[in-house]
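Hi there,

I know you've been waiting on this one. I reran it after we fixed the sequence typo, so this is the corrected version. Both the input and the resulting structure follow.
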Amino acid sequence: MMKNSFAVPAQINSGSQLTSYTLFKLRELLPGRQAVLPVCSFGTPYEEIAGLADFFLPPLYHEAMTDELKRRIVNQVQKCFPYDGRSSSGWIVGLSSSGMATPLEVVELPASSNDFGTPPKVLAFSVDTAVEEHGPHLPLATDSIQSYSVLNQLAEEVDGLAPGPPVDYGHLTWGLPFGMSVDLTPPLVTEYVTRFTNAILEWAKPEAIYVVDVHGSIVHRRAIIAGMKASNADRWAFRWLHDSLVEFASERGDQHAGGVETALVERVNSGLLDPDWWPHRIADIEAGEMTLEKAVELTGNLDNFFRFAESDAAPNGIVGNIRNYESLDANLMFGRMMNVAREDVSRLLAGQTQANHDAGDSPWESI
């Protein structure tokens, strides 16, 4: 069966998997280095991708795209990464020694027919914003790391459930002013999720599909659900895994890369937190964080958001409260996510599906 090699890196700021690095480390390392966007098949061996360049972004999949959709997605990725075109100082940071912006090359590997193996009863994958800055101490892949910590545990507990490859691109806003983030836009998310799901059904032949994410944008989640509804999947469920953590996160003003996500990533592997920052520089992290109220205010005018991100205020990309970490129980939070996921999968295995697929509640439209 497919091993989710891309979803959970082994060590922060190491190897060629770009999303295992932090925003700050990429600002330091990426200029002048080669970065690629791979296009490959489901089941393409990790080693074939890891050896392509200094850094590789999460892959896109031949089976999930038409030529036109691939063109639109690639154009959007190149528009955002490594710095959105609305950035000013970001482009200076992103210049190589030759004076040219760090190139992002698209590398298409040959389409292949790698066999999935025994068809699972439930094929599970995440649709997360894996290319999204999470401040100075957490990797870009913070969202997908959390999602696959749940899916990997489910696979150990539930006979017939298999984690599949993730959709590592989604809709985001708050990361764009800081760089190293990709917004796929809601319409592209919906179309790609539809085609990805149809391709997964053809490849793995599961009886049911389980889709999760942890990203906070309700627009992103609605786009996922729209994509699933348009797909050929008859039996499926979607879950925003952080829906059970609202009292620890948004109700405490801790939405993005703060205490909650730090605790949950640390629970997966403490080696996924940058030791140059965590935990001894928690005061420095706190000094650069933004409040949720400020981020929501700036979301309505992205030009102002970009100017603020590049101002003397020097925000570090965190929208939250890193000190919230000190009062959190990571095992309790993980347990809550697991409980709702177990219930979802139990219903799928019983032949049920959700009558009304729910994107969850959110006080903001886009993050």
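Quick highlight: DSSP finds twelve helices and eight strands in the chain.

Best,
R. S.
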